[in-house]
């Protein structure tokens, strides 16, 4: 389907430990504070994760854009292990567009870049857009480029490939293009975490793309495994899935990393180290 | 791909004559006033169109929800020919949610039902959602059901199949499910009018679907022809495409109907008459 | 893609222990004699296999159609464990068409039915067809029907679906239709064991099909896992793959069953017991 | 799907006038003798055909490899018009492998190269392979290369892409790779002329391929049109289809060319002239 610069016997594992929605009430093992996040990142690194996707919380557990907290998270993780730090710019419903990219000042190696707008269908923000319009995307990617930060483009449906193609055409992003296919979100505009959807999107990826694969909820393991077989990376973690299996809460992010790594090894794939992933993804050494 | 209740040697042609965006400034042959709309509908019927998709304008050419104008359009068309009347509930950016379904009171046989939210990326409404949230969809479809009006579900991307599946699961729509695949719109969230997109969506249609195929701009003829080959209907008209070919404005809606009918006949398909289409689509005789 | 009568949390594992080509020279752990075959079948059953695919060898290790040997294999397996016995009618290049179905007299619950002709491209039979013409297929399936033996239709490419459709149309096979997608064979006419091929064939399977998935060589584990994710069964075994991983010979058929079962369990699927598989596949109790 | 060196507003039309199976008994308008073939080629050229696919018959109407007859056909066509001459090396059941390439001595610009073996399922040669084994393919392509003759690779199913890939890997063929997708043949091993099959094969074509699209029987027009929309050329002619529509025999090859050209023009595509086609396909001037 898509040609792949990553060796056939390697897979890049990303862990999304915290998220903007999950919290200790839903699963007490969600790491929220800098110390918890760094400690969990070390465990995940030890199990085989190469990239750590970061959301920050204030001491009350609310989503925050406080640069001091991001700096503290980055510092503690860097002390603990050489995992790649990827900050989320998806933010949370309580953060402004401007606040969502404060984190770039903390100098992550990567940052997520949401490639389109979804509509919230439940909760207090029901009917409110999670806005990521073309102008906003351009502004975010320009800021990332200034800081030598590699964007991982999050696409939640086929249509978001349109803005990916636009960024390529405009020369705003560099090869390899990192695209994370995120399926199974509960928003209007999201697509389901099915094999039909995943294979169809993979088939439409632009040349020179490296893809990652995130599946929310119980499909995380099967669809992540499918993504791996198709040559992509896999993202796991409590941000996307709080149950290890039906009726059993995840005990730690490392537990989810360990499972996908066991599957990878059965399939003849070794988890890429952070340094291998840096090379495959073409990360700038600037923020290391 | 999708099993089809329509005979292999028939094709349902819909004409979308007016739209909410195109106007006489863009192409002087856009029919706007009731008399123009009815006269053009007769010409399109004579060329082979079975369904006429209706947008109403006030005497100044602005989008309107005025029920008197809808009544006048319906009356004049019914006097002229037996074409099926399908009112748009897509409205225009100046109409409220409530205004968009005023037209149902005029008792059309069909009405369009937009199955998701798109974001405007240009013009005075840039950044503003064209909102069709699940609650709104439910409200619209319930109103159509009360009036015995068959919804044609407009989907602009793969993701909108989610709300189609939801309506089926909730029992809110009846077989056959009429789905119009609309590609090539200039909104964030829309998908391009390509063979890859069209075949991929057709493959994912629910069982017992009848599909129609609308492609905005220069792809109208090729992608409409592809849709016909895949067993679907085709929508043409000035709403979607103001050029007959590069640099040449469409001279009338009937000119576009005539072209797609010529192609259909070369491919061994005769345009369905309105009565044949009524039978295939399972329209209620109530609003005839 | 294809609707599936098998529960989402179950997977049918078949083991193909011996084959017609592999032998003790290629891997000393290939079971050839009745006692070896039965002992290995028990181990595979204990690891989770529900079906055992059988090829018979004479005391010199040559492919044989000797009914006494088939009877002995069946008898010893039945003594050892309740695994489903599926005899191969693919035979070997030294067997006639008639000899290839001698085994049916031994009364297996299932038998393989090869759905088309492939051309040998190497070895002493290079250029010679492995013939499975429509008349031969019909003759074989009629014999199976007489004995209450369920055919598993082996398809090696997209084109063989044509004869599957013909058997369905002619009423020669009963629902559910058991189809084994066999990829990666070294014949002219075979298709490669790739995700693109497997997903494309699965998409074209007739309604009411149950599919199994066999991948020859090093793709066995990844493509088998893909098949499982798509809702199919998986066949593993020394017939199809003599290396456990690059440079390491398989130590036993049970080793391969154990690996695919570990993956299945990580993916939330328990191997179906023989009795569960009998129910899903609709096997006749006649030959149990 | 596949990147295409042919301009979007052009389409290469091939006419297959005679074939090895159709004859004057099936349709009296099949041109068999050199004069008939040349006269019909001129008419097809005038309607828009760029390539003429040639089978030769002896004075009794039997398939022949007689080089004098090929020379006469070539000479007469060249006198009549500048259409590209493409000789068939598919031969007929009465011709040996060696005889099938006699025609190359007549120095055509192109020749067909059959990429795999199919099994005859009816007629006097029922059960006999139409053999095109890898060794034979290699021999044929080497002979074509010696003569500066461009092979058009005929593939009848997905599996034949394997030998295409092999020729590319072995460096035996030059870019652009000309591939003719031939569907709907009545052989075991052939695939049906459906949109699902055609789009699936197009998706799997190697980079730098130019494809042509041949559909046997009543699907010729619809599937040829689909091929054109996907960016391919179209082959029509009495070799593949003797009915213009149900119950009405084709009156001339030119009638079929004229129909596909009318469709092409409705779709905004002009038939490529022979010289344009020579350029797109990279034909050597040697045999012009």
In short:
With 288 residues, chain A is of the alpha/beta class.
Strand-residue proportion of chain A: 15-25%
Global mean pLDDT of chain A: 96
Top CATH class of chain A:
Alpha Beta
Structural class of chain A, please? alpha/beta
Number of helices of chain A: 9
The two chains with the largest interface, and their residue counts, are:
A-B, 26 and 26 residues
Number of β-strand runs of chain A: 15
CATH topology of chain A: TIM Barrel
CATH superfamily of chain A: Aldolase class I
The SSE order of chain A reads EEHEHEHEEEHEHEEHEHEEEHEH
Radius of gyration of chain A: 17 Å
Question: In terms of topology, how is this protein built?
Answer:
The structure is a homotetramer of 288-residue chains.
Chain A: E1 10-11, E2 13-16, H1 34-47, E3 51-54, H2 67-80, E4 84-87, H3 97-100, E5 110-114, E6 118-120, E7 129-130, H4 134-146, E8 150-155, H5 161-169, E9 177-183, E10 187-188, H6 195-204, E11 209-215, H7 220-229, E12 234-236, E13 243-245, E14 248-249, H8 253-266, E15 270-271, H9 274-281
Parallel strand pairs in A: 1-15, 2-3, 2-12, 3-4, 4-5, 5-8, 8-9, 9-11
Antiparallel strand pairs in A: 6-7, 6-10, 13-14
Helix pairs in contact in A: 1-2, 1-8, 7-8
Structure, described:
4 copies of one chain form a homotetramer. Chain A is of the alpha/beta class and 288 residues long. Chain A has one domain: TIM Barrel (Alpha-Beta Barrel). Chain A has 9 helices and 15 strands. Chain A has an 8-stranded parallel sheet with strand order 11-9-8-5-4-3-2-12. In chain A, helix 3 links the parallel strand 4 and strand 5. The two termini of chain A are 32 Å apart.
């Amino acid at each position: 389907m898509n040609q792949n610069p990553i060796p056939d016997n390697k897979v890049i594992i990303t862990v999304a430990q915290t998220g903007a929605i999950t919290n200790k009430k839903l699963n007490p093992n969600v790491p929220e504070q800098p110390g918890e996040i760094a400690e969990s990142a070390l465990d995940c690194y030890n199990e085989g994760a190469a990239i750590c996707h970061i959301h920050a919380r204030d001491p009350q557990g609310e989503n925050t854009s406080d640069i001091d907290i991001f700096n503290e998270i980055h510092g503690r993780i860097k002390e603990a292990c050489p995992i790649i730090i990827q900050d989320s710019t998806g933010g949370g419903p309580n953060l402004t567009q401007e606040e969502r990219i404060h984190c770039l000042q903390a100098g992550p190696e990567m940052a997520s870049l949401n490639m389109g707008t979804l509509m919230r269908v439940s909760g207090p923000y029901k009917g409110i857009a999670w806005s990521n319009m073309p102008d906003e995307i351009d502004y975010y990617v320009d800021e990332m480029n200034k800081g030598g930060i590699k964007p991982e483009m999050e696409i939640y449906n086929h249509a978001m490939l349109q803005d990916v193609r636009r960024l390529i055409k405009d020369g705003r992003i560099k090869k390899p293009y990192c695209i994370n296919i995120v399926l199974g979100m509960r928003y209007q505009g999201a697509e389901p975490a099915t094999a039909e959807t995943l294979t169809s999107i993979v088939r439409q990826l632009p040349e020179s793309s490296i893809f990652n694969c995130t599946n929310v909820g119980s499909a995380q393991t099967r669809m992540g495994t499918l993504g791996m077989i198709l040559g992509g990376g896999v993202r796991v973690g409590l941000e996307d899935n709080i149950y290890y299996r039906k009726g059993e809460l995840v005990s730690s992010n490392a537990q989810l990393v360990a499972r996908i790594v066991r599957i990878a090894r059965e399939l003849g794939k070794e988890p890429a180290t952070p340094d291998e992933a840096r090379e495959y993804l073409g990360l700038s050494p600037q923020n290391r």
